[in-house]
Design goal:
2 domains
Length: 181
């Protein structure tokens, strides 16, 4: 006796897409999802001069967090850098500016210039931190949205992965809903 299919397969492409989608969904549920969501673009090693000058006061933010135009404006106004005189000699400004421009964000997420060239006001930053209440940003353990290291334990290494987030000391339990440490 010859084997015959129960019914002819008219929509083979639909069946293949359904199977592929089901496999991806299963992988997500079984643990690959968080790993994929946590993926970050390859990190560019920071310019030593940039780290020396900028990390003296705050985290040396990865150049890819802002578009080139934002970095250019920032480097051109160091004498009034968010309320502080962060002036540098001309050679340092030129060296750091060149590096920032070469490594600035060009991908869709950061192409848009944020208000006042503030990373913490960029659309992607606001979206990523939408669950964090205004009270958390003002808490003495955090102080502001620009203090990445308050929660991102490896911010100094340019790693903002959700796997390396910790709950800042002193915050009440009512704010804990956004943390999973």
């Amino acid at each position: 006796m010859k084997n015959m299919p129960l019914a002819p397969v008219k929509y083979k492409h639909v069946a293949i897409k359904t199977i592929a989608f089901s496999l991806l969904a299963a992988a997500w549920v079984l643990g690959a999802g968080p790993a994929l969501a946590d993926y970050t673009a390859p990190r560019v090693p920071p310019l030593p001069k940039y780290t020396q000058e900028c990390a003296a006061c705050h985290v040396a933010y990865p150049a890819g967090m802002l578009p080139a135009a934002s970095w250019q404006r920032m480097m051109g106004t160091l004498n009034k850098h968010y309320g502080t005189d962060a002036s540098l000699d001309e050679a340092s400004v030129r060296e750091i500016s060149t590096w920032l421009k070469a490594n600035a964000g060009t991908y869709r997420k950061v192409r848009e210039e944020p208000p006042q060239d503030r990373i913490s006001q960029s659309a992607w930053f606001v979206r990523e931190h939408r669950e964090v209440s205004a009270e958390v940003w003002k808490h003495k353990a955090v102080r502001s949205a620009a203090n990445c290291a308050a929660c991102h334990t490896r911010a100094d290494a340019g790693d903002y992965s959700e796997r390396n987030i910790t709950y800042p000391a002193g915050l009440g339990e009512k704010y804990r809903h956004g943390w999973n440490d």
